[in-house]
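pinging the channel bc i need a second pair of eyes. not urgent but kinda urgent?? the chain im working w is below, pasted from the shared doc
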Amino acid sequence: MTTRGSLGPFQVGRLGYGAMQLAGPGVFGPPADPDAAVAVLRRAVELGVDHIDTSDFYGPHVVNELIATALRPYPADLVLVTKVGARRDDQGQWLPALSPDELRAAVHDNLARLGVDRLHVVNLRVMDDSSLEAQFTALAELREQGLIAELGVSNVTSAQLAEARSIAPVACVQNMYNVVVRGDDPLVDETAALGVAYVPFFPLGGFQPLQAATLHEVAARHGATDRQVALAWLLRRSPNILLIPGTSSVAHLEQNMSVGDLALTEADLTDLDGLSAVGH
């Protein structure tokens, strides 16, 4: 199993890290132990992570500030990926922020809090299946200005991906997908054919972790955990899949980073593929 993949022009490990869980409960406010959050980020880089996913609306601002505190000056090979298109209100609700002006402001907020002159990848997070022309065009203009290296899209349909690609190159798609929630199976195959990275969010089920007897059974065969099996399945699913599992625990981080060594058998894959019928 290859351990490297393409994120636009960037070659990264297929096992990256999603920093969302470093904020407080509900991805809102600061963590109870900021030093522990910093330790997780530094351990991730020690373990070879060179792809970190974040956003300035995590917290808001909290996660980007933790990343800057923990990792600046950044390793030369570290690819920081952020997303824009949402904001938080005072109660922590997730609200759309998709006007061109809001997107431009969000890019500048990410630049400032991460402490960089250019963002490696910015994903446009959309809220529905309507046209994204105005939003993606605004980001493409920032790319032309040199503030963004590559663009991606998140929570999109195949038609929206095609629309985005008609405006500017798309390095990645970030949608919800895991061993149980398989509605994006066709889009995984489509992006693979296009040479576009597919980065599943909630690869372990998100705020409601995956629970399935089959996961327990396959994990028991390998002396592994359910989450390791779920991640290993994604690595086997398609070579264009890049993983960004999130955790606020060093122990879980270390478990996640070891899944490249977990060799699922054809019998395992057959059993796990059966989960899609109950998940979507």
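so The chain has one domain: 4-279. and Residues 74 and 165 are 30 Å apart (CA to CA). — does that match what u expected or am i reading it wrong
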